[in-house]
Design goal:
By secondary structure, the protein is α/β, with parallel strands linked by helices. It is built from 4 helices and 10 strands.
Length: 202
């Protein structure tokens, strides 16, 4: 019993030490007020994973091979889900939370393919830790992103840049799919960022 309490305390302590941190790197918030729509693009080109900072290709190759060894065909199926999660889970989760806090109260809509808008938000994934769930114990996912507003007509013109580190991805109960946990990390990023924008811009 004592050992279990120690393990649980260490888990809680570790989780608290890796809480999400958001920092304004450059720019200001004045441009957002009065904007009805803001375009959003998601970038995964240079993302790394795990403490080893593996590239996406390295991670997919290694993890797929591990799954194939356990059950032929499982690795290939996982690969398809891993890629599809970007459009089916990560982007929708982020946008849902952004709009929940900014569209209803401030009439500012964030969405993909809004190419006629003055500003575009680039959501660049920097680092991901998928986390794990063993039933009794689990480790939430972590998502680190760079959130950059640029002029849509001139992508070199940065008007606001915010770094978001270690956004936690977790759900009530068990979540055995890496993509679901990571998706919650994007939801947490969207929620925290929306609250920051609401406070600073409006």
């Amino acid at each position: 019993m004592k050992n279990l309490v120690t393990i649980l305390f260490a888990f809680v302590l570790t989780s608290s030490l890796t809480a999400q941190k958001m920092k304004v790197e450059q720019g200001g918030f004045d441009f957002i007020k009065g904007q009805k729509e803001i375009n959003v693009e998601f970038i995964y080109d240079n993302m790394t994973l795990l403490k080893k900072n593996m590239t996406n290709d390295e991670y997919v190759k290694e993890h797929s091979a591990e799954l194939e060894e356990k059950s032929p065909g499982k690795g290939k199926t996982w690969e398809k889900g891993w890629v599809a999660a970007r459009e089916l889970i990560y982007a929708p989760k982020f946008l849902e939370l952004m709009n929940r806090y900014l569209y209803k109260d401030h009439d500012t809509k964030f969405g993909e393919d809004l190419t006629d808008t003055p500003y575009t938000l680039l959501v660049e994934t920097i680092w991901v830790f998928p986390g794990w769930d063993a039933g009794v114990m689990k480790q939430p996912a972590k998502v680190t992103t760079q959130l950059t507003f640029v002029e849509t007509a001139n992508r070199d013109k940065v008007v606001l840049e915010v770094s978001s580190k270690n956004a936690p991805g977790d759900q009530w109960g068990s979540s055995f799919d890496d993509e679901d946990r990571i998706g919650e990390g994007y939801a947490k990023t969207g929620k925290s960022f929306a609250k920051m924008l609401a406070k600073k811009a409006f």
